[in-house]
Structure formats: structure tokens, C-alpha cells
Design a protein that fits this description.
Length: 355
């Protein structure tokens, strides 16, 4: 049974000491949210009498799955209920592990003496449709721990502040404060949590002014080239420039940043060419393997992006490819990062809704 993370507290409270599910599966690549969910489940388990705890970490291909099956079947020495944690950091239990997990779920489907928590990293579609994951999902509750996206960060921050009795000012000032806060912590949720806690230590419960937030919250944002692609294709110019500055400061390779920009430009070029050839947009995106959030961005951008503009972007991407590899061009900056900023701005302005 799939459950959103924000539904977990109500689920645990409603379940009480006797209504907990026999198995909880946490997966995703946001460590703060996964740890908080795990802590909440542990606390509920302790309150329900699951006082004996075992941890099994699946490291490598030679993990002894029989030890896990035996641990789940063995009675506690003192007759206590058991909390068993199974950690699979690779997300790939293998053939033996798949069979063992399915068998484990069958054995403990109705066993209220054992509560199991399985923790996994981010999983792809093949993994989430596998027999072993389907068995885990069918045996209890599954929770996905994804990073908080930039557009959802202000609300997340506001909720965290409210939990410690604080809030921003109403109206435009408060929205500005939350936006500033989100810009400073984007891509680094653990540090965002720490900054929220810091505000609780610095200031009493009640409203927080823009000045207080600007003075207290430090820049702990972290970026990657895939998020840069999202910002550029959304036409978010200021965010694009901030992300490039952050990637440069973090020591990211200029050639990798260029690859991300060039990949989008070439994909737009291929899609535009196919559209001009008479193919419908859904077919074009499917043929070019444009999926997920990127698909929505392409759907918005392509109808108003004309072939000559795309051709200029392709030519510019080729020029910047030479610059990041040490070749100079008389009409472009010699510094690779300045050239990347210019290329990103060209693309961002072409796809901007106000262009």
C-alpha cells in the first residue's frame, strides 16, 4: 500500500499500539526524509511493544539470506516483540534476495510479533515492478522519500517553521522571505532543516521578518547539472545563473555542464526537425525518449521554438564545446564558465514564456 510521507504521522497515530502494519518499506534518495520516517516508525513500534531490535545490512552479493529468514522466525529470548530492519543500500537484492524477500513477506503477513522496516535507495521502474518489491508493497506500507523540489520548498519551510511555533509575515513580504530561504537551501534538505532549527534557537515563537531570515539563513544550496537543465528549459534566468555559479564554486567540470546544455539543445533540434516534418508532438517525444519532467518542459517549449532559433543554438553549443576544451573564439568569452553562462542565457531566453 502506497502512502505519502505527509500521511505517515496520521497513519501511525490512527494505527495505535495494535494497528501497525507488519512491514514498512522506505525508498528514495532524500536521507533526511527517510531518516525522519524511520524514526517515527521506530517510535511507534516501541510504543506498541516491539522492544527487541535487529538490523540486517545487505552488503554485496554474498549476504546470507537464510540468517534473515531464521531471525524473523525465531522467538525472542524474553518473549518480546521484534523490530527487524533490513537495509539494502544497493537496491538490488539479487535472485536469492528476491526469493527470500517474497518468502519473508509470506511468512510474516499475519505475524504481529514481528514488525519489519526495509530501507532502499531510489529505485527505477524495473525495480518497483519487480516481484520482490511488489511483495513488499503488498505486505504493508510503502513510502517514497524523494527530494523536495524547488517549487515545493517554500511550503515545506513554512510547515517546518509552524511546527516550532514560527511563521513568516503575511502577504508579499512573507512570500519573499520564503523564496529567499528556498534559494539559499535548494538541493540540500538536511541543511535546510538545520537552518529552520537555527531560526527556532535564535528567535522566539511568532512571526519572523524578512530581515531576520536574511541575516540568519546562510547559503547552503547544492546543485547538479540535471537541475540546471530544468531551470534553463523553464526560462528561469536568475535561477540558471545562480546554479551555474554554484556548480563552478563546487568544482564541477565545465565539460559536464556543457554536455547537459548541449544535450537539451540537440534534443530540441531533433524534435523541431521531426515536428516540421509533420510528425505529432507526442510521437516525437516518444521517439526521442523525452520522458518525465523533461517531457512537460519540451511540450511547453517546442510549439513556439522555431527552426532558425534552434539552429543558432546548435551552432553556439558547438562553439562552446571548443571553448571548454581550450579553443578560443573571437566572438565568445575565453573563460569556459563565462561562455557557459552565455550559452545558458541564450537557451533560457529562447524558451522563456515572455520571449
Amino acid at each position: 500500500m502506497q502512502l505519502r510521507l505527509d500521511q505517515l504521522p496520521a497513519h501511525l497515530q490512527k494505527a495505535g499500539p495494535t494497528g501497525l502494519k507488519p512491514l514498512y518499506t522506505l525508498y528514495g534518495d532524500e536521507p533526511l526524509l527517510a531518516q525522519e520516517a524511520l524514526d517515527a516508525i521506530r517510535a511507534a513500534a516501541r510504543a506498541a511493544g516491539y522492544t527487541e531490535r535487529q538490523v540486517h545490512s545487505v552488503a554485496g552479493a554474498h549476504f546470507d539470506w537464510s540468517s534473515l529468514l531464521g531471525a524473523g522466525s525465531a522467538m525472542s529470548l524474553f518473549g518480546d516483540k521484534q523490530l527487524i530492519e533490513i537495509r539494502i543500500p544497493s537496491g538490488k537484492p539479487g535472485k536469492d534476495g528476491s526469493q527470500a524477500l517474497q518468502s519473508y513477506c509470506e511468512r510474516h503477513a499475519d505475524d504481529d510479533s514481528v514488525l519489519t522496516v526495509v530501507t532502499l535507495p531510489r529505485l527505477d521502474k524495473t525495480q518497483t515492478t519487480s516481484a520482490w518489491f511488489t511483495a513488499l508493497d503488498g505486505a504493508g506500507v510503502t513510502l517514497r522519500c524523494d527530494p523536495i523540489e524547488r517549487n515545493a520548498l517554500p511550503l515545506w519551510i513554512a510547515q517546518r517553521l509552524a511546527a516550532q511555533g514560527q511563521h513568516v509575515e503575511s502577504g508579499e513580504e512573507g512570500q519573499h522571505a520564503l523564496g529567499f530561504f528556498a534559494d539559499r537551501v535548494e538541493g540540500n534538505l538536511l541543511a535546510a532543516h538545520q537552518e529552520v532549527v537555527k531560526l527556532g534557537l535564535l528567535y522566539p515563537p511568532g512571526p519572523l521578518s524578512v530581515t531576520q531570515i536574511e541575516e540568519a539563513v546562510v547559503d547552503v544550496s547544492r546543485f547538479n547539472v540535471f537541475k540546471l537543465s530544468e531551470a534553463v528549459l523553464s526560462g528561469q534566468i536568475q535561477r540558471t545563473l545562480r546554479m551555474i555559479d554554484g556548480l563552478q564554486a563546487e568544482g564541477e567540470a565545465a565539460v559536464l555542464v556543457h554536455w547537459a546544455l548541449a544535450e537539451d539543445i540537440m534534443a530540441l533540434h531533433r524534435c523541431r526537425t521531426a515536428l516540421d516534418g509533420g510528425k505529432p508532438l507526442p510521437m516525437v517525444l516518444r521517439e526521442q525518449r523525452v520522458w518525465g519532467p523533461r517531457e512537460r518542459l519540451f511540450e511547453r517549449v517546442l510549439p513556439r521554438l522555431k527552426a532558425p532559433a534552434v539552429a543558432r543554438l546548435v551552432s553556439s553549443a558547438s562553439t562552446v564545446d571548443g571553448i571548454v576544451k581550450g579553443l578560443r573564439h573571437p566572438q565568445w568569452p575565453h573563460d569556459p564558465w563565462e561562455a557557459l553562462r552565455r550559452l545558458a542565457l541564450m537557451l533560457s531566453r529562447q524558451v522563456s514564456p515572455t520571449a
